[in-house]
Fold this sequence. Notes:
Blueprint: H1 4-10, E1 17-22, H2 26-35, E2 44-49, H3 57-65, E3 70-75, H4 86-103, E4 111-115, H5 121-138, H6 143-169
Parallel strand pairs: 1-2, 1-3, 3-4
Amino acid sequence: MLTAGEQSKTNTWEPRIVAFFCNWCTYTAADLAGVSRLRHAPNARIIRVMCSGRVDPQFILDAFSKGADGVLLGGCHPGDCHYMEGNYKALRRMRLLKRMLKDMGIEEHRFRLEWISASEGERIKTVINEMTEQVRTLGPLGLPKKFEEWDTEMEVLERTVNGKEEAVHA
């Protein structure tokens, strides 16, 4: 993976996608896609989790804050969860997270929740390719750089407020 400096030198930006895949279904489907030699965009970095219901929304926010341009969450189809209701828990959490991401100014297509069973290797290929193209169209999120800008703004604001307080007390 290229660093930001290397990307600007070569002038080719590629989206970085973090994918949290349930061990029992979606990760197994990704394995099936690999064994079946189904080629998909290499932009997704897959993290295996035991259940989509175990993915805390903070994991998604952390991925974005550390430079991900998109995040994909994959789990078992509703009713087929190895842990009975984990995917319903994930669905409730992620609906709320989508609202929060929108309020933060993060485009809707940068986060995606998909139900993919172990036998759907072709669907893995389709979803990763679609998401890669959607995120490529949106361009870099650049959240770490935005954090630096916001930190600088806060430092300037703090100096301004402290300066005014010192002037009042002088």
